[in-house]
Write a structure and sequence with these properties.
The chain has 267 residues and is α/β, with parallel strands linked by helices. The protein contains 8 helices and 7 strands. The model has no long low-confidence stretch (mean pLDDT 96). The two termini are 34 Å apart.
Length: 267
């Protein structure tokens, strides 16, 4: 059996309705896991779950606002009841608001930190509670937080986003240490995705060009590629495969790390 085999594993993916999250959910299901897509986008999320099921995978949907304690409590309970347990939590949900520092809007920053940092912290909180001994699942597992290459580079107009993703990295390391010292049996890691041409990635290119930082969105993309030794943008599959690795026994002694999946951009 491959060490990347996830048959019998039960996973929850936040922001799993579309973009990177949908790709991660699809890849986890293809590796054999049962996947609960958790998102605020009900119609899109249900369709993504149906697509996975239609290709032979096992998936469900639960509505989740990651900033809400009660939503998290209910989503975890629903997943455990539906799948008979929980082994993997992927904290992928996030938002990006493009602003120059001189034009920073405090409410926008609070919103971004609420979703990206508080949302991830609550995912860690409820994931640990469920998977630790005596929890609703109680057999240990793994938590995978999605940071960003923005946490490791200096790129204009994303200071707030970069700061929120840097916070996720530090949160990951503390969570791994707490889990280990308290005997929870839950590994906690994060990945640093490079720029991918999802709706969010395209939006960033358009908006940075709109601020006059680049001549055009294509020039913004070209600048990113120019900073990337691999010479291309990332693809959804690049990030999804990294999540499968961290969810699998292939990464059994990988804990508390931030894994760059950025083509070398953040080195």
């Amino acid at each position: 059996m491959s060490v990347f085999e996830l048959t019998g594993k039960r996973a929850l993916v936040t922001g799993g309705a579309r973009g990177l999250g949908a790709g991660m959910a699809t890849a986890l299901a293809a590796a054999g896991a049962s996947v609960m897509i958790a998102d605020v986008l009900k119609d899109v999320g249900e369709q993504t779950a149906a697509t996975i099921t239609g290709t032979g995978g096992k998936a469900g949907f639960v509505q989740l606002d990651v900033t809400s304690d009660s939503d998290w409590d209910a989503a975890i309970a629903h997943t455990v009841a539906e799948f008979g347990g929980l082994d993997v939590v992927v904290n992928n949900a996030g938002i990006e608001i493009t602003q120059l520092l001189v034009d920073t809007d405090a409410d926008d920053m609070r919103k971004m930190f609420d979703v990206n940092v508080v949302g991830t912290m609550l995912g860690v909180k409820y994931g640990l509670r469920a998977m630790r001994p005596g929890g609703a699942a109680g057999n240990g597992g793994t938590i995978i937080n999605i940071a960003s290459v923005a946490a490791t580079i200096a790129f204009p107009a994303i200071a707030g986003y970069s700061a929120s993703k840097s916070a996720i990295h530090r949160l990951t390391k503390v969570a791994a240490m707490e889990s280990g010292q308290l005997g929870y049996g839950v590994r906690v890691n994060c990945i640093f995705p490079g720029l991918v041409a999802t709706d969010m990635g395209i939006k960033l290119a358009v908006e940075t060009a709109g601020l006059g930082l680049f001549e055009s969105p294509d020039a913004a993309v070209g600048a990113v590629i120019g900073l990337t030794p691999s010479g291309r943008l990332g693809e959804v599959a690049d990030m999804a495969d990294a999540v499968v690795f961290l969810a699998s026994d292939a990464s059994r002694f990988v804990n508390g790390v931030g894994l760059p999946v950025d083509g070398g951009m953040g080195m």
